[in-house]
TrEMBL record:
Top-level lineage group: Bacteria
Organism: Terasakiispira papahanaumokuakeensis
GO biological process, one term: negative regulation of DNA-templated transcription
Stored PANTHER family: HELIX-TURN-HELIX TRANSCRIPTIONAL REGULATOR, ICLR FAMILY, HTH-TYPE TRANSCRIPTIONAL REGULATOR RV1719
Family annotation (InterPro entries): GAF-like_dom_sf, HTH_MetabolicPath_Reg, Tscrpt_reg_IclR_C, Tscrpt_reg_IclR_N, WH-like_DNA-bd_sf, WH_DNA-bd_sf
Record-linked PROSITE patterns: HTH_ICLR (PS51077), ICLR_ED (PS51078)
Organism lineage string: Bacteria, Pseudomonadati, Pseudomonadota, Gammaproteobacteria, Oceanospirillales
Keyword line: DNA-binding, Transcription, Transcription regulation
The IclR-ED domain, residue ranges: 82-271
Protein name as catalogued: Transcriptional regulator
Domain HTH iclR-type: 18-81
MF GO annotations: DNA binding; DNA-binding transcription factor activity
Amino acid sequence: MNNHAKKLATPAANAAGPSTLRHAMQLLKITAAGGYQGASIDDYLDAMTLSRPSIYRLLKSLKAEDYLRSSPKRGRYLLGYQLLALGAQAGNGSGLRDLMRPRLLSLAQRFGDSFYLFARDGIYAVCLEVQNGAYPVGSFVRATGERVPLGVGQASIALLAQLPLAERHTLLKHSATQLEHDYQISIEDVETEIEFLHQHGYARGVEGSQLPEYTGLALPILDHSGHPLGALSCAMLKSRMTDEHRQAVLAGMRHHVTELVEQAHSLLHLE
């Protein structure tokens, strides 16, 4: 073992490493919460227990690695572009995002609604890509990278429906309080919508939640072995959800899902 390796292996280094990492992650989250205005040293001091010199050391290190950058507004920090590059790869581990992006754009241009690509991330559904048409609508997620608990929205219903029954019940039991409190969604309603998907082949999402004026559709994206890769979702105003429009959108979504899996299955790498 060389001297550098010995240094890394010391108990002091091992003890400090996780703590430093947690503080760095906390600092990045505070910066992200600042939005386009970024965050100031006072924002970090208010939210963290670290001293001013310690925060400045972390800021300097994160800037050196391009995870942070200086804001045009003096004394404030913004997330660095290196995080954008890492995020693009994190959301494209299977190659699905690159393959679906032009299809989402095609659907949005054709039908005018908002189309999303979601994937499962533990107990959450994370948005990997979104394309808005001429009639964009609100959603539980506002941008790529945002996530919601499984059970919220039609895409998460499509993802939940692919899980083994025991795993699904355990997951929903764990999330029940959050679903009820934050989204006014009951486990019974989620199970009803999962059954609807099994009967009709598409998901609708739970009615009467926080976005009562919107509705949507979602399809699971399954590989040739039936493994769930993600979910293709459409959100629209309820006034646009006529029988004719629903059938047309579903046909378009099914076409793109089938075409993607048939033509590009050799490019989809399971994680």
